[in-house]
Protein backbone atom coordinates (compact mmCIF):
# COMPACT_ATOMS: atom_id res chain seq x y z
CA UNK A 1 0.00 0.00 0.00
CA UNK A 2 1.53 3.31 -1.07
CA UNK A 3 0.33 6.79 -0.24
CA UNK A 4 0.51 9.96 -2.26
CA UNK A 5 -0.94 13.43 -1.98
CA UNK A 6 -1.75 16.03 -4.59
CA UNK A 7 -3.23 19.52 -4.54
CA UNK A 8 -5.54 21.06 -7.14
CA UNK A 9 -7.76 24.09 -7.32
CA UNK A 10 -10.80 21.93 -8.03
CA UNK A 11 -11.60 18.28 -7.27
CA UNK A 12 -14.62 16.74 -8.99
CA UNK A 13 -16.21 13.54 -7.68
CA UNK A 14 -17.89 11.71 -10.55
CA UNK A 15 -17.08 11.64 -14.26
CA UNK A 16 -20.54 11.55 -15.78
CA UNK A 17 -21.55 14.36 -18.15
CA UNK A 18 -22.08 16.86 -15.32
CA UNK A 19 -18.75 16.07 -13.67
CA UNK A 20 -16.86 16.14 -16.95
CA UNK A 21 -18.33 19.53 -17.83
CA UNK A 22 -17.58 20.95 -14.40
CA UNK A 23 -13.95 19.85 -14.62
CA UNK A 24 -13.69 21.19 -18.17
CA UNK A 25 -15.22 24.59 -17.37
CA UNK A 26 -13.15 25.17 -14.25
CA UNK A 27 -10.03 24.23 -16.21
CA UNK A 28 -11.07 26.65 -18.94
CA UNK A 29 -11.37 29.32 -16.24
CA UNK A 30 -7.69 28.86 -15.49
CA UNK A 31 -7.95 26.53 -12.51
CA UNK A 32 -6.23 23.17 -12.09
CA UNK A 33 -8.75 20.33 -12.00
CA UNK A 34 -8.82 16.63 -11.24
CA UNK A 35 -11.72 14.23 -11.65
CA UNK A 36 -12.27 11.09 -9.57
CA UNK A 37 -14.21 8.14 -10.99
CA UNK A 38 -14.61 4.56 -9.84
CA UNK A 39 -16.33 3.28 -12.98
CA UNK A 40 -16.37 4.44 -16.61
CA UNK A 41 -15.81 8.04 -17.67
CA UNK A 42 -19.05 9.19 -19.20
CA UNK A 43 -21.11 7.71 -16.41
CA UNK A 44 -24.62 6.31 -16.43
CA UNK A 45 -25.73 8.32 -19.45
CA UNK A 46 -23.08 7.06 -21.82
CA UNK A 47 -23.13 3.40 -20.86
CA UNK A 48 -26.36 2.40 -19.09
CA UNK A 49 -28.98 5.06 -19.73
CA UNK A 50 -29.45 7.82 -22.32
CA UNK A 51 -27.25 6.62 -25.16
CA UNK A 52 -27.66 2.82 -25.14
CA UNK A 53 -31.38 3.10 -24.43
CA UNK A 54 -31.89 5.39 -27.41
CA UNK A 55 -29.80 3.06 -29.56
CA UNK A 56 -32.27 0.31 -28.65
CA UNK A 57 -35.30 2.56 -29.12
CA UNK A 58 -34.35 4.03 -32.49
CA UNK A 59 -35.00 0.91 -34.64
CA UNK A 60 -38.22 0.26 -32.71
CA UNK A 61 -39.60 3.74 -33.31
CA UNK A 62 -38.28 3.88 -36.88
CA UNK A 63 -40.12 0.68 -37.71
CA UNK A 64 -43.29 2.03 -36.12
CA UNK A 65 -42.97 5.17 -38.25
CA UNK A 66 -42.30 3.11 -41.37
CA UNK A 67 -45.43 1.02 -40.80
CA UNK A 68 -47.45 4.23 -41.05
CA UNK A 69 -45.92 5.25 -44.40
CA UNK A 70 -47.80 4.07 -47.52
CA UNK A 71 -45.54 2.11 -49.85
CA UNK A 72 -43.13 1.12 -47.12
CA UNK A 73 -45.26 -1.05 -44.84
CA UNK A 74 -44.46 -4.37 -46.48
CA UNK A 75 -40.74 -3.77 -46.00
CA UNK A 76 -41.22 -2.77 -42.34
CA UNK A 77 -43.58 -5.58 -41.36
CA UNK A 78 -40.87 -8.15 -40.67
CA UNK A 79 -39.24 -8.68 -37.28
CA UNK A 80 -36.35 -6.59 -36.09
CA UNK A 81 -32.86 -7.97 -36.67
CA UNK A 82 -32.15 -8.41 -32.97
CA UNK A 83 -28.41 -9.27 -33.17
CA UNK A 84 -27.87 -6.17 -35.32
CA UNK A 85 -29.87 -4.02 -32.88
CA UNK A 86 -27.70 -5.24 -30.01
CA UNK A 87 -24.52 -4.80 -32.02
CA UNK A 88 -25.47 -1.20 -32.80
CA UNK A 89 -26.22 -0.61 -29.10
CA UNK A 90 -22.81 -2.04 -28.20
CA UNK A 91 -21.16 0.27 -30.72
CA UNK A 92 -22.93 3.30 -29.27
CA UNK A 93 -21.76 2.23 -25.79
CA UNK A 94 -18.23 1.77 -27.21
CA UNK A 95 -18.40 -1.79 -25.90
CA UNK A 96 -18.33 -0.34 -22.38
CA UNK A 97 -14.84 1.09 -22.69
CA UNK A 98 -13.96 4.72 -22.02
CA UNK A 99 -10.67 5.20 -23.87
CA UNK A 100 -12.12 8.04 -25.95
CA UNK A 101 -13.33 9.80 -22.82
CA UNK A 102 -9.89 9.45 -21.25
CA UNK A 103 -8.32 10.96 -24.36
CA UNK A 104 -10.77 13.87 -24.23
CA UNK A 105 -9.96 14.51 -20.58
CA UNK A 106 -6.26 14.67 -21.43
CA UNK A 107 -7.00 17.06 -24.32
CA UNK A 108 -8.55 19.58 -21.92
CA UNK A 109 -5.73 19.15 -19.36
CA UNK A 110 -7.84 17.63 -16.60
CA UNK A 111 -6.18 14.95 -14.49
CA UNK A 112 -7.88 11.66 -13.65
CA UNK A 113 -7.68 9.47 -10.55
CA UNK A 114 -9.50 6.16 -10.89
CA UNK A 115 -10.93 4.79 -7.69
CA UNK A 116 -13.51 5.35 -4.99
CA UNK A 117 -13.31 8.89 -3.66
CA UNK A 118 -14.57 9.89 -0.22
CA UNK A 119 -14.55 13.26 1.49
CA UNK A 120 -12.27 13.37 4.53
CA UNK A 121 -13.02 16.76 6.00
CA UNK A 122 -13.15 20.21 4.39
CA UNK A 123 -11.55 20.31 0.93
CA UNK A 124 -10.08 16.82 1.44
CA UNK A 125 -10.77 13.73 -0.69
CA UNK A 126 -9.18 10.31 -0.18
CA UNK A 127 -9.25 7.95 -3.16
CA UNK A 128 -8.83 4.22 -2.79
CA UNK A 129 -7.53 3.19 -6.18
CA UNK A 130 -8.15 -0.06 -8.01
CA UNK A 131 -4.56 -1.05 -7.30
CA UNK A 132 -5.12 -0.72 -3.56
CA UNK A 133 -3.28 2.56 -3.17
CA UNK A 134 -4.53 5.58 -1.25
CA UNK A 135 -4.34 9.02 -2.84
CA UNK A 136 -5.11 12.13 -0.80
CA UNK A 137 -6.37 15.09 -2.80
CA UNK A 138 -6.59 18.62 -1.42
CA UNK A 139 -8.66 21.36 -3.06
CA UNK A 140 -7.47 24.94 -2.84
CA UNK A 141 -10.86 26.20 -3.96
CA UNK A 142 -13.67 23.71 -4.49
CA UNK A 143 -14.81 20.12 -4.27
CA UNK A 144 -17.58 19.53 -6.81
CA UNK A 145 -19.89 16.57 -6.27
CA UNK A 146 -21.38 15.04 -9.42
CA UNK A 147 -21.94 11.46 -8.32
CA UNK A 148 -25.41 11.18 -9.84
CA UNK A 149 -28.03 8.66 -8.77
CA UNK A 150 -28.66 4.95 -8.41
CA UNK A 151 -31.82 2.87 -8.66
CA UNK A 152 -34.17 3.38 -5.73
CA UNK A 153 -35.44 -0.06 -4.80
CA UNK A 154 -38.86 -0.44 -3.18
CA UNK A 155 -39.14 -2.36 0.06
CA UNK A 156 -40.43 -5.65 -1.33
CA UNK A 157 -39.85 -8.99 0.40
CA UNK A 158 -37.63 -11.25 -1.68
CA UNK A 159 -36.41 -8.53 -4.04
CA UNK A 160 -32.76 -8.91 -3.06
CA UNK A 161 -32.80 -12.62 -3.89
CA UNK A 162 -34.24 -12.45 -7.43
CA UNK A 163 -31.44 -10.37 -9.05
CA UNK A 164 -33.76 -7.67 -10.37
CA UNK A 165 -32.87 -5.70 -13.46
CA UNK A 166 -32.16 -2.00 -13.12
CA UNK A 167 -31.71 0.41 -16.00
CA UNK A 168 -28.22 -1.07 -16.37
CA UNK A 169 -29.35 -4.59 -17.16
CA UNK A 170 -32.26 -3.30 -19.22
CA UNK A 171 -29.98 -1.31 -21.52
CA UNK A 172 -27.04 -3.74 -21.61
CA UNK A 173 -28.73 -7.16 -21.88
CA UNK A 174 -28.03 -9.15 -25.04
CA UNK A 175 -30.69 -11.83 -24.63
CA UNK A 176 -34.40 -11.24 -24.93
CA UNK A 177 -36.36 -12.67 -21.97
CA UNK A 178 -39.57 -14.41 -22.97
CA UNK A 179 -41.43 -12.53 -20.24
CA UNK A 180 -40.41 -9.25 -18.62
CA UNK A 181 -42.21 -7.54 -15.75
CA UNK A 182 -41.51 -3.84 -15.34
CA UNK A 183 -42.35 -2.12 -12.05
CA UNK A 184 -42.93 1.60 -12.49
CA UNK A 185 -44.68 4.11 -14.69
CA UNK A 186 -42.06 6.75 -15.39
CA UNK A 187 -39.75 7.42 -18.31
CA UNK A 188 -37.47 4.40 -17.84
CA UNK A 189 -40.46 2.10 -17.42
CA UNK A 190 -42.30 3.16 -20.58
CA UNK A 191 -39.17 3.40 -22.72
CA UNK A 192 -37.99 -0.05 -21.72
CA UNK A 193 -41.50 -1.47 -22.18
CA UNK A 194 -41.40 -0.05 -25.72
CA UNK A 195 -38.01 -1.65 -26.43
CA UNK A 196 -38.44 -5.10 -25.00
CA UNK A 197 -41.98 -5.68 -26.28
CA UNK A 198 -40.73 -4.84 -29.79
CA UNK A 199 -37.74 -7.16 -29.35
CA UNK A 200 -40.01 -10.08 -28.53
CA UNK A 201 -40.64 -10.10 -24.79
CA UNK A 202 -44.12 -10.34 -23.39
CA UNK A 203 -44.02 -7.26 -21.19
CA UNK A 204 -46.19 -6.64 -18.16
CA UNK A 205 -46.07 -3.06 -16.88
CA UNK A 206 -47.04 -2.70 -13.21
CA UNK A 207 -47.97 0.87 -12.32
CA UNK A 208 -48.72 1.99 -8.78
CA UNK A 209 -50.92 4.92 -9.80
CA UNK A 210 -53.63 5.32 -12.42
CA UNK A 211 -51.45 6.73 -15.19
CA UNK A 212 -47.95 6.60 -16.65
CA UNK A 213 -45.74 9.68 -16.96
CA UNK A 214 -47.70 11.29 -14.15
CA UNK A 215 -45.53 14.40 -14.01
CA UNK A 216 -46.51 15.36 -17.52
CA UNK A 217 -49.82 16.41 -19.03
CA UNK A 218 -52.38 13.61 -18.50
CA UNK A 219 -53.03 13.21 -22.21
CA UNK A 220 -49.37 12.32 -22.73
CA UNK A 221 -49.54 9.34 -20.40
CA UNK A 222 -52.86 8.20 -21.83
CA UNK A 223 -51.54 8.23 -25.39
CA UNK A 224 -48.35 6.36 -24.46
CA UNK A 225 -50.24 3.76 -22.41
CA UNK A 226 -52.71 3.20 -25.24
CA UNK A 227 -49.85 2.72 -27.70
CA UNK A 228 -48.12 0.24 -25.40
CA UNK A 229 -51.33 -1.75 -25.06
CA UNK A 230 -51.80 -1.77 -28.83
CA UNK A 231 -48.26 -3.15 -29.13
CA UNK A 232 -49.15 -6.00 -26.78
CA UNK A 233 -47.92 -4.75 -23.41
CA UNK A 234 -50.08 -5.82 -20.47
CA UNK A 235 -50.47 -2.50 -18.62
CA UNK A 236 -51.87 -2.79 -15.10
CA UNK A 237 -52.71 0.29 -13.07
CA UNK A 238 -53.14 0.79 -9.32
CA UNK A 239 -51.11 -2.26 -8.37
CA UNK A 240 -48.10 -2.69 -6.13
CA UNK A 241 -45.74 -5.61 -5.75
CA UNK A 242 -46.01 -7.26 -2.33
CA UNK A 243 -43.57 -10.16 -2.76
CA UNK A 244 -41.23 -11.71 -5.31
CA UNK A 245 -39.42 -15.03 -5.42
CA UNK A 246 -37.62 -17.45 -7.73
CA UNK A 247 -39.24 -20.46 -6.11
CA UNK A 248 -37.49 -23.17 -8.08
CA UNK A 249 -33.93 -21.97 -7.91
CA UNK A 250 -31.82 -18.96 -8.91
CA UNK A 251 -32.46 -19.36 -12.63
CA UNK A 252 -36.16 -20.14 -12.40
CA UNK A 253 -38.94 -17.66 -13.27
CA UNK A 254 -39.82 -14.80 -10.95
CA UNK A 255 -43.17 -15.14 -9.21
CA UNK A 256 -44.59 -11.70 -8.47
CA UNK A 257 -47.42 -11.30 -5.99
CA UNK A 258 -49.54 -8.16 -6.40
CA UNK A 259 -51.58 -6.07 -3.98
CA UNK A 260 -54.74 -7.06 -5.89
CA UNK A 261 -54.19 -10.69 -5.00
CA UNK A 262 -53.19 -11.54 -8.57
CA UNK A 263 -49.77 -12.78 -9.55
CA UNK A 264 -47.46 -12.42 -12.54
CA UNK A 265 -44.74 -14.81 -13.66
CA UNK A 266 -41.76 -13.41 -15.56
CA UNK A 267 -38.27 -14.45 -16.51
CA UNK A 268 -36.87 -11.09 -15.42
CA UNK A 269 -38.18 -8.19 -13.37
CA UNK A 270 -37.07 -4.60 -14.01
CA UNK A 271 -37.31 -2.10 -11.18
CA UNK A 272 -37.97 1.38 -12.55
CA UNK A 273 -39.60 3.08 -9.58
CA UNK A 274 -37.26 6.04 -9.23
CA UNK A 275 -33.75 7.17 -8.41
CA UNK A 276 -31.84 7.79 -5.19
CA UNK A 277 -28.80 10.05 -4.67
CA UNK A 278 -25.45 8.30 -5.01
CA UNK A 279 -24.12 9.83 -1.79
CA UNK A 280 -24.24 6.99 0.73
CA UNK A 281 -20.49 6.36 0.75
CA UNK A 282 -18.75 9.56 -0.27
CA UNK A 283 -17.86 10.80 3.24
CA UNK A 284 -20.59 13.40 3.70
CA UNK A 285 -20.56 12.72 7.44
CA UNK A 286 -17.00 14.10 7.61
CA UNK A 287 -18.27 17.55 6.61
CA UNK A 288 -21.45 17.60 8.68
CA UNK A 289 -23.92 16.30 6.07
CA UNK A 290 -26.13 13.22 6.15
CA UNK A 291 -24.91 10.29 4.03
CA UNK A 292 -27.32 9.07 1.39
CA UNK A 293 -29.20 12.34 1.01
CA UNK A 294 -29.76 14.76 -1.85
CA UNK A 295 -27.39 17.73 -1.82
CA UNK A 296 -29.44 20.89 -1.55
CA UNK A 297 -27.82 23.81 -3.38
CA UNK A 298 -28.37 27.51 -3.79
CA UNK A 299 -28.71 29.19 -7.17
CA UNK A 300 -24.93 29.20 -7.65
CA UNK A 301 -24.82 25.41 -6.99
CA UNK A 302 -23.07 25.78 -3.64
CA UNK A 303 -24.13 23.05 -1.23
CA UNK A 304 -26.08 24.47 1.66
CA UNK A 305 -24.77 23.86 5.18
CA UNK A 306 -21.08 23.92 4.21
CA UNK A 307 -19.02 26.56 6.01
CA UNK A 308 -16.97 28.75 3.66
CA UNK A 309 -18.97 27.47 0.66
CA UNK A 310 -16.25 25.21 -0.75
CA UNK A 311 -18.58 22.40 -1.91
CA UNK A 312 -20.68 22.50 -5.07
CA UNK A 313 -23.08 19.90 -6.46
CA UNK A 314 -24.23 19.60 -10.06
CA UNK A 315 -26.36 17.12 -11.96
CA UNK A 316 -28.82 14.59 -10.61
CA UNK A 317 -27.30 14.60 -7.12
CA UNK A 318 -28.77 18.04 -6.33
CA UNK A 319 -32.28 16.83 -7.27
CA UNK A 320 -33.13 19.91 -9.33
CA UNK A 321 -33.67 18.14 -12.63
CA UNK A 322 -32.66 14.53 -13.18
CA UNK A 323 -31.66 14.89 -16.83
CA UNK A 324 -28.25 14.80 -18.50
CA UNK A 325 -28.66 17.99 -20.48
CA UNK A 326 -29.71 19.92 -17.39
CA UNK A 327 -26.77 18.59 -15.39
CA UNK A 328 -24.41 19.74 -18.13
CA UNK A 329 -26.07 23.16 -18.11
CA UNK A 330 -25.60 23.39 -14.35
CA UNK A 331 -21.96 22.39 -14.70
CA UNK A 332 -21.30 25.07 -17.30
CA UNK A 333 -22.83 27.73 -15.06
CA UNK A 334 -21.13 26.43 -11.90
CA UNK A 335 -17.75 26.26 -13.65
CA UNK A 336 -18.02 29.92 -14.62
CA UNK A 337 -19.07 30.84 -11.08
CA UNK A 338 -16.19 28.93 -9.48
CA UNK A 339 -13.74 30.60 -11.85
CA UNK A 340 -15.12 34.07 -11.11
CA UNK A 341 -15.06 33.54 -7.36
CA UNK A 342 -11.51 32.23 -7.49
CA UNK A 343 -10.48 35.49 -9.17
CA UNK A 344 -12.59 37.63 -6.78
CA UNK A 345 -14.69 38.79 -9.71
CA UNK A 346 -18.32 39.88 -9.23
CA UNK A 347 -21.00 37.44 -10.32
CA UNK A 348 -23.45 38.32 -13.06
CA UNK A 349 -26.60 36.57 -11.81
CA UNK A 350 -29.13 38.64 -13.72
CA UNK A 351 -31.57 36.62 -15.80
CA UNK A 352 -29.33 36.32 -18.86
CA UNK A 353 -26.05 36.63 -16.98
CA UNK A 354 -23.13 34.24 -17.29
CA UNK A 355 -23.73 33.07 -13.73
CA UNK A 356 -27.51 32.76 -13.78
CA UNK A 357 -29.34 29.43 -13.30
CA UNK A 358 -32.45 30.71 -15.08
CA UNK A 359 -33.18 27.52 -17.02
CA UNK A 360 -33.33 25.42 -13.85
CA UNK A 361 -36.38 27.34 -12.73
CA UNK A 362 -38.33 28.05 -15.90
CA UNK A 363 -37.40 25.86 -18.84
CA UNK A 364 -36.35 22.27 -18.18
CA UNK A 365 -36.86 20.31 -21.43
CA UNK A 366 -37.60 16.58 -21.48
CA UNK A 367 -38.12 13.95 -24.16
CA UNK A 368 -39.63 10.50 -23.77
CA UNK A 369 -38.52 8.36 -26.72
CA UNK A 370 -41.58 6.17 -27.01
CA UNK A 371 -44.09 5.66 -29.82
CA UNK A 372 -45.48 8.31 -29.78
CA UNK A 373 -42.73 10.67 -28.67
CA UNK A 374 -43.48 12.95 -25.74
CA UNK A 375 -41.75 16.29 -25.27
CA UNK A 376 -42.38 19.03 -22.76
CA UNK A 377 -40.82 22.14 -21.28
CA UNK A 378 -41.93 24.63 -18.67
CA UNK A 379 -45.19 24.47 -16.77
CA UNK A 380 -47.89 21.82 -17.01
CA UNK A 381 -51.50 22.59 -16.15
CA UNK A 382 -51.23 20.57 -12.92
CA UNK A 383 -48.11 22.44 -11.88
CA UNK A 384 -49.76 25.77 -12.65
CA UNK A 385 -52.77 24.82 -10.51
CA UNK A 386 -50.57 23.59 -7.66
CA UNK A 387 -48.68 26.89 -7.53
CA UNK A 388 -51.76 29.06 -8.03
CA UNK A 389 -50.56 30.29 -11.40
CA UNK A 390 -53.25 31.45 -13.81
CA UNK A 391 -52.75 30.18 -17.36
CA UNK A 392 -54.55 30.11 -20.67
CA UNK A 393 -54.53 26.59 -22.12
CA UNK A 394 -54.44 26.16 -25.90
CA UNK A 395 -54.72 22.66 -27.41
CA UNK A 396 -54.35 21.47 -30.99
CA UNK A 397 -54.78 18.09 -32.67
CA UNK A 398 -51.56 17.41 -34.56
CA UNK A 399 -53.40 15.14 -36.99
CA UNK A 400 -54.81 18.28 -38.62
CA UNK A 401 -51.38 19.46 -39.78
CA UNK A 402 -50.29 19.04 -43.40
CA UNK A 403 -46.87 18.12 -42.02
CA UNK A 404 -48.21 15.26 -39.92
CA UNK A 405 -50.15 13.88 -42.88
CA UNK A 406 -46.90 13.87 -44.83
CA UNK A 407 -45.11 12.25 -41.89
CA UNK A 408 -47.46 9.29 -41.48
CA UNK A 409 -50.88 8.01 -42.41
CA UNK A 410 -53.20 7.84 -39.44
CA UNK A 411 -51.02 10.24 -37.45
CA UNK A 412 -52.11 10.72 -33.84
CA UNK A 413 -50.78 13.53 -31.69
CA UNK A 414 -51.62 16.50 -29.54
CA UNK A 415 -50.06 19.83 -28.63
CA UNK A 416 -50.68 22.04 -25.61
CA UNK A 417 -49.40 25.56 -25.03
CA UNK A 418 -49.78 27.42 -21.74
CA UNK A 419 -49.79 31.21 -21.83
CA UNK A 420 -49.66 33.93 -19.21
CA UNK A 421 -53.12 35.55 -19.60
CA UNK A 422 -51.84 39.03 -18.77
CA UNK A 423 -48.52 39.14 -20.62
CA UNK A 424 -49.26 36.73 -23.45
CA UNK A 425 -45.98 34.89 -22.86
CA UNK A 426 -45.37 31.17 -23.28
CA UNK A 427 -45.10 29.38 -19.94
CA UNK A 428 -45.12 25.75 -21.00
CA UNK A 429 -45.47 23.48 -24.02
CA UNK A 430 -46.19 19.76 -24.42
CA UNK A 431 -46.13 17.85 -27.70
CA UNK A 432 -47.13 14.20 -28.14
CA UNK A 433 -46.81 12.42 -31.48
CA UNK A 434 -44.33 10.78 -33.85
CA UNK A 435 -41.36 13.02 -34.60
CA UNK A 436 -42.21 15.82 -32.16
CA UNK A 437 -38.89 15.58 -30.33
CA UNK A 438 -37.44 17.93 -32.94
CA UNK A 439 -39.94 20.61 -31.87
CA UNK A 440 -38.61 20.75 -28.34
CA UNK A 441 -35.79 23.23 -28.82
CA UNK A 442 -38.10 25.81 -30.35
CA UNK A 443 -40.44 25.33 -27.39
CA UNK A 444 -37.53 25.68 -24.97
CA UNK A 445 -36.46 28.94 -26.61
CA UNK A 446 -40.03 30.25 -26.42
CA UNK A 447 -40.34 29.45 -22.71
CA UNK A 448 -36.83 30.55 -21.74
CA UNK A 449 -37.11 33.90 -23.51
CA UNK A 450 -40.75 34.40 -22.44
CA UNK A 451 -41.71 34.90 -26.05
CA UNK A 452 -45.04 36.62 -26.58
CA UNK A 453 -47.86 35.68 -28.90
CA UNK A 454 -47.14 38.85 -30.89
CA UNK A 455 -43.50 37.87 -31.39
CA UNK A 456 -44.26 34.28 -32.31
CA UNK A 457 -46.76 35.45 -34.91
CA UNK A 458 -43.80 36.67 -36.95
CA UNK A 459 -41.76 33.46 -36.60
CA UNK A 460 -42.94 31.71 -39.74
CA UNK A 461 -42.88 27.88 -39.74
CA UNK A 462 -42.08 26.10 -43.00
CA UNK A 463 -44.86 24.31 -44.87
CA UNK A 464 -45.52 21.38 -44.79
CA UNK A 465 -43.71 20.50 -41.57
CA UNK A 466 -44.93 19.50 -38.14
CA UNK A 467 -43.43 22.76 -36.84
CA UNK A 468 -46.48 24.48 -38.34
CA UNK A 469 -48.17 23.50 -35.09
CA UNK A 470 -46.87 26.78 -33.70
CA UNK A 471 -48.98 28.73 -36.19
CA UNK A 472 -52.03 26.59 -35.48
CA UNK A 473 -51.69 27.09 -31.73
CA UNK A 474 -51.43 30.85 -32.22
CA UNK A 475 -54.46 30.84 -34.51
CA UNK A 476 -56.47 28.83 -31.99
CA UNK A 477 -55.56 31.31 -29.27
CA UNK A 478 -56.41 34.30 -31.47
CA UNK A 479 -59.73 32.84 -32.60
CA UNK A 480 -60.73 32.08 -29.02
CA UNK A 481 -59.81 35.61 -27.90
CA UNK A 482 -61.95 37.08 -30.66
From TrEMBL:
Q: Where is the FAD/NAD(P)-binding domain?
A: 8-326
Q: Does the keyword NAD apply?
A: yes
- Which Gene Ontology MF annotations are present? dihydrolipoyl dehydrogenase (NADH) activity; flavin adenine dinucleotide binding
Q: Which residues bind NAD(+)?
A: 184-191, 274
Annotated ranges, domain Pyridine nucleotide-disulphide oxidoreductase dimerisation: 364-470
* InterPro entries in the record: Class-I_Pyr_Nuc-Dis_Oxidored (IPR050151), FAD/NAD-bd_sf (IPR036188), FAD/NAD-binding_dom (IPR023753), FAD/NAD-linked_Rdtase_dimer_sf (IPR016156), Pyr_nuc-diS_OxRdtase (IPR001100), Pyr_nucl-diS_OxRdtase_dimer (IPR004099)
Task: Report the co-factor binding details.
Answer: Binds 1 FAD per subunit.
Binding-site list for FAD: 54, 117, 316
Keywords in alphabetical order, please: FAD, Flavoprotein, NAD, Nucleotide-binding
State the disulfide connectivity: 45-50
Source organism's superkingdom?
Answer: Bacteria
Q: Where is the signal peptide?
A: none
Cofactor(s) annotated in UniProt: FAD
BP terms from Gene Ontology: 2-oxoglutarate metabolic process
> Is the keyword Nucleotidyltransferase assigned to this protein?
no
By its UniProt entry, which Pfam families does this protein fall under?
A: Pyr_redox_2, Pyr_redox_dim
Q: Which family does it belong to?
A: Belongs to the class-I pyridine nucleotide-disulfide oxidoreductase family.
Task: Report the PANTHER family cross-referenced here.
Answer: DIHYDROLIPOYL DEHYDROGENASE, MITOCHONDRIAL, DISULFIDE OXIDOREDUCTASE
Can you name this protein? Oxidoreductase
- Organism this protein belongs to: Streptomyces fructofermentans
Amino acid sequence: MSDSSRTYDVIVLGAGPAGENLADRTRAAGLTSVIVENELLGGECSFWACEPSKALLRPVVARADALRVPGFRRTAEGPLDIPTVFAHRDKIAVNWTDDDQVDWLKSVSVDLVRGHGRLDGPRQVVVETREGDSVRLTARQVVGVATGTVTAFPDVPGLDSVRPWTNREATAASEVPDRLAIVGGGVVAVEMATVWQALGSQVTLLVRGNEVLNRMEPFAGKMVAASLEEAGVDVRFEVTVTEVARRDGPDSPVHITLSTGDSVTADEILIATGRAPHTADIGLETVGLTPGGWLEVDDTYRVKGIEDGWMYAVGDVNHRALMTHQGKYQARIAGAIIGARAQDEPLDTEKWGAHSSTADHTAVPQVVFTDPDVTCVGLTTARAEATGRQVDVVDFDLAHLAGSVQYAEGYRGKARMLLDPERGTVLGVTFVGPGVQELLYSATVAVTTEATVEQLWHAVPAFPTISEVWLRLLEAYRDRAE
